[in-house]
Amino acid sequence: MVLPLIGSVLVALIPNDQVLRIKQAALGTTLLVAITGVLAWVKFDSGNTALQFVESAKWIPSFGINYAVGVDGLAIVLILMSVLLAPVVVLAGWNESEGGRWSAKVYYILLLILETMMIGVFSATDLFLFYVLFEAILIPVYFLIGGFGTGDRAAAAVKFLLYSLFGGLVMLAAIIGLFVISGTHGGYTFDIARLSELHTYMSSTTQNLLFLGFFIAFAIKAPVWPLHTWLPDAAESATPGTSVLLVGVLDKIGTFGMIRFCLTLFPDASKTFTPLILVLAVISILYGAFLAIGSRDIKRLIAYTSISHFGFITMGIFAMTSQGVSGATLYMFNHGFSTAALFLVAGWMISRRGSSTISDFGGLQRVTPVMAWSFFIAGMSSLALPGLSSFVSEFLVLVGTYTRYPVAAVIATFGIVLAALYILIPVQKALHGPVTPGNENLPDLTLREKIAIAPVIAVIVALGFYPSPLLNVINPSSAHILEVQGFTDPLPSESAGK
Amino acid sequence: MDFTAPVLNYALLAPILIVLGGALVGVLIEAFAPRASRHNSQLFVTIASLVAALSALLRVRNQSSASAAMGSVAFDGAGFLLQASILIIAILSVFLIADQENFTALAAAVPGSEEERNSLQADLRVTEVYPLTLFAVARMLLFPLASDLITLFVALEMLSLPLYLMAGLSRRRRLLSQESALKYFLLGAFSSAFFLLGIAYLYGYSSSITFAGIQASITGGSGNDVFLLLGIAFISVGLLFKVGAVPFHAWSPDVYQGAPTAITGFMAAATKVAAFGAILRIYYVAFANDEWQWKPVLIVIAIVTMVFSSVVAISQRDVKRMLAYSSIAHAGFLLSGVIALNKSGLEASIFYLFVYGLATLGAFGIVTLVRDSSGEVTDLNRWSGLGKRSPILASVFALDLLSFAGIPMTSGFIGKFSIFSAAYESGSTAILISGVLSSAIAAFFYIRIIVIMFFKDPVEDGTSVVIPSALTTTTIAVTSVLTLVLGIYPAPLINFIASSASFIR
To answer: What are A300-325's pLDDT values in tens digits?
Structure first.
């Protein structure tokens, strides 16, 4: 976790005019972090449901606040996703940093700080540390959107920040409530494990209110309908690289938080609100899909598809079955990669064509075959074509939901049909068909871009055929989370996943 | 008739006496020293006496006495912390005041007159501001220690008088500055009258003017409750006026805007510590056992203050007015610490006061630096693109704003967290919820300034950032470093406060 921070200091030390050196340092750091991340994943003992790689230090003892980190199967997977995407983003957006308001140096410093906080937020086992990072992470993203984005970037950045801050403050109120309750039952603490025992002392009203505080914050972050309106604006204005980190990684904090905090801290309230949340999730799935079908701007399209996908993830989580939660976690990982591929390829298309309207891209298949194929594969993954990674997770989520809430699962299945529409229509418009005038001479992907996109596509394909390395890590942890708080699978479940 | 000499504990009173002595030396310098050397020697005497007072204070840090001056002054852990905060803030403020560009050359000259032009040409300086500052600081030190109503009233009056004068010393837009000083004086006098009336009622209730005596009467329950309630109400009006809580806030935007910026910073930071110190003491010590009578009213005032000022601040176009409304909002947050009425509320309030004071000084320090040919530029629209022209300055200002907004990793967040926890712990859910909501509203206007500074293109109208003097740089650097450090690692200060924050009764 410290590594990217050192990298950002390193980048800060390099003088402004040596842009290449700065980029190399940033790339080197992110690669190094990625390798460390993979090593951690290999070393991770998937049979053990306790937290691993635990570190702890006193921070503000009088409030019972510790700097405490550690990972379980869910966290390690999400960290793995973040650290793998970071070098891809640096490499893919090699020139993104130059159109900005400030120098390239600022861009990479912000990026590395962002990476540090992302790892921190997934591994925090102290609620206070989590909250601090949850809020502080907004600042680098805010400046990345506002400083390096396109179009009405300042307005989009402010909208993003205000939405998230509002959610954060609501959560702060809930955290304070929880903190005070912890003080009357065994001493002030922010340790998540100890906080998760508190629910037995709370009246159901208290628990419901606190749950809502957390859930609203995470639902804004995730985003769940009707709190989603910031996302399309932010994604449209941000650079493709920032969009990848924003939608692909940052929004996962919301869904991750739902598992980590909503389910574990407030099990009874979670049950109370499940019907409401499932309705919201299903609305998200369909609403996002419809908007995606109707959108003309390619970046907005991807943002709307993500809203639909986040609906699936939320549904999987609140189905409260082990398949549902495992599927949701795997879904987060896969969505990270397929969205990354979509945003990056779309970014290249836009920068080549100078337009982000879908109908301007006609005939790319003929002019730029590699770019078109990359977009196609990413799109197929997004609509969960069997054989690509998202299929497994979407299937798990639907199965997990069906065993308990068949109606929701059935309605959500329409989302898949709509997904076929929203992906195939742009694919048809943009990639196939006659070459739109002005597209004849567009260059195909450069070697750098190919190197950047190749690992993403490889992950998408590989996990489609063979997801068990990840599922083996996820399953014990998600089963453990549900078991601790007494959620049981409704059927004598065939072993979760496969 | 017997006459006993008063018994004074000089060691405990030393900080106040040293500052007063420094002020008197300052008056002598003003009268006798040649004009050329006056400024530097005044600056030296001011800083030296403030530092000497601080070291005298540190020497007595673990002592406490309910009768440092015949029962009129109580020295205790909380008093020590408040005095230390005031002195540190005062030293940093004097650094800002030392940059004399902001002050009129000759306060007595009529605006626009021949005399004024001559004095500007002669490059005169208002050195009288230094002794005035010291006089104000001395009474600010006394204010949170006062443990009877007469001492409290004297300290209140005497700390206000220098401030009324200092508010009128601005170099540019002098009429505005003088108007604000007059406004401040008239409204201040009005609130003092209320305060005095409150004292009379409380004396009628308990036939005592000491906090301990009032407390004893409340516990005994012998007096006439109507007098008690009227007394608490009127005294509260006087004190809430000083901290600028709604609905007694009307003076503060005008005065903040009109006064020289360095003075505004001093008033916003130091006066707030002193006034809240006094409020904390009187509510925690004298009125604590009557809480069910005054608490609901204070809760309403705190909520109205937070919400109203946050909403009004959104539409401000002037950076100093915006900071004024922000300071009103912070008064509301601080009142929730008073309402908490428990030990964690006291600790949280003291921590909040200190870090808020520092961030405020830093912010006003930066406002003094953004100028055009005719002086400071406070119109927010003309701040656009500041981030491009002077990134460091704009970043520091952004840091202060983020701290006001209570974003994690700044000291403001820790303060807000601890003060709201304390309020919630004492059972005020309403305070917690409205505090969080108004923080969200407030975040909007803080962020708007960041947008203006960083995401708008610069306007070419001669707005520029002057190179700060070494002293101003020190203030800005110290405050911003502390804001960041106390945001990331506040444990030492929090422990220190927790170990000594208590009121002697």
So the answer is: 888 888 888 888 888 888 888 888 88
